[in-house]
Here is the input.
Amino acid sequence: MRFILIVLLAQVAADTPFDLTRRAAEAYAAGNYAEAATLSTRVLALLPRSVSTRVNVARALARQGKTAEAISRLRETAAFGIRIASCG
Here is the structure.
């Protein structure tokens, strides 16, 4: 039972925003854009106000040829950034 708990805690620790961002950057650099988008989306679940992560998702989508989705994400990001700026 202790072993299972240790394994689960290790997995949770490996899924910090910092670690996920690092892994997304590595995936992007290796040309694995789908994995980069997936990992960056997981970061957004933890840090929904991260504008840079939103841009990273859009970049990974664009590299996959998902141009319309990437543009949509960038528009959402721009609107999100404006809302953040106006709040204070």
User: Anything to note?
Assistant: The two ends are 48 Å apart (CA to CA). The helical segments are 2-14, 17-29, 33-46, 51-63, 67-87.
